[in-house]
């Protein structure tokens, strides 16, 4: 989970360095604002499995390995002990993003490209989709709307409202998850699928998510997000349920803009996931005897 520290905002101008701008957004310390939640990533994975724009051979692989694909879709947010965010997301806020993070991952760990293990390939495909969604969120929502955009009088609360926006998406997507996801995710047995996240961390993260989406389960998002912005779960609920308190968010991030960026995130994630898997299929075809 991301550790977010909240302090009152300062009055100095926003620095040019993105890491410093993000720190300024939170108001103190070197801190990273949150990204779309696991439920938003699981909802995207669910759509990808039914998307007829995904080639039939790729959909067949993902359907046969739904559990690994789901776990891959949320695995980037697991945190091995002592790791940094860039160790699992493959970009840092203080450096230009010159290449898609998933390609950085494959360049650093080329064995992930050529695996003959179908479960591992589906898992990495989910991971690629996750990184691609976060890439678009960073470049099209987080930086332009929450860092650079002038919020006027609402400037001091925009970091809180960033969390409110993500919870809004999270609760919508949690309600969209189909019943099959729980048994599929809970049954996954990662086996050395990533060189940078150990299996124990993946098992623990799988169990944390699966417990919430089981029949009768409950989302922990309010309890997780609340301490990051010095609010109780009840205070967050009151904020989310108050049109007046949410108005500054929708004034600065209109619902139509959010919908457009979410479409861009999904389409990009689909295309990047297909590029990863198509590359493997092309490699396999090249190796077949004539």
Description:
With 290 residues, this protein is mainly α. The chain is globular, with a radius of gyration of 19 Å. It has one domain (38-281). Helix content is 62%, strand content 0%. It has 14 helices and no strands. α2 (38-49) crosses α8, α4 packs parallel to α7 (118-148) and α7 (118-148) runs antiparallel to α14 (255-287).
Outline of the structure:
The chain is mainly α.
Mean pLDDT: 87
The helix/strand class is: mainly alpha
Form type: globular
Largest sheet: none
How are the secondary structure elements laid out?
Layout: H1 18-26, H2 38-49, H3 56-64, H4 66-75, H5 85-89, H6 101-108, H7 118-148, H8 158-176, H9 181-186, H10 199-213, H11 221-225, H12 233-240, H13 243-252, H14 255-287
Task: Using brief descriptors, characterize the structure shown.
290 residues; mainly alpha; 14 helices; 62% helix; globular; disordered N terminus
């Amino acid at each position: 989970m991301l550790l977010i520290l909240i302090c009152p905002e300062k009055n100095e101008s926003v620095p040019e360095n993105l890491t410093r701008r993000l720190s300024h957004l939170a108001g103190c310390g070197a801190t990273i604002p949150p990204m779309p939640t696991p439920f938003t990533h699981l909802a995207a994975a669910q759509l990808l499995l039914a998307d007829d724009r995904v080639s039939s051979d790729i959909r067949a692989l993902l359907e046969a390995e739904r559990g690994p694909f789901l776990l891959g879709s949320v695995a980037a947010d697991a945190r091995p002990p002592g790791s940094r965010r860039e160790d699992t997301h493959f970009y840092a806020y203080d450096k230009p993003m010159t290449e898609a993070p998933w390609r950085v991952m494959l360049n650093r760990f080329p064995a992930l490209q050529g695996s003959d293990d179908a479960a591992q390939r589906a898992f990495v495909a989910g991971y690629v989709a996750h990184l691609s969604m976060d890439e678009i969120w960073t470049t099209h929502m987080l930086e332009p709307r929450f860092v650079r955009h002038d919020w006027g009088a609402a400037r001091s609360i925009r970091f809180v409202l960033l969390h409110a926006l993500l919870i809004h998406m999270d609760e919508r997507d949690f309600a969209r998850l189909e019943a099959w996801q729980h048994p599929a995710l809970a049954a996954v047995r990662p086996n050395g699928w990533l060189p940078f996240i150990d299996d124990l961390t993946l098992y623990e993260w799988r169990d944390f998510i699966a417990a919430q989406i089981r029949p009768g389960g409950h989302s922990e998002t309010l309890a997780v997000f609340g301490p990051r912005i010095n609010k109780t779960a009840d205070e967050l609920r009151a904020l989310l349920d108050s049109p007046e308190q949410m108005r500054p968010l929708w004034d600065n991030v209109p619902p139509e803009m959010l919908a457009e960026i979410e479409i861009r995130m999904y389409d990009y994630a689909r295309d990047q996931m297909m590029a990863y898997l198509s590359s493997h299929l092309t490699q396999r075809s090249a190796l077949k005897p004539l």
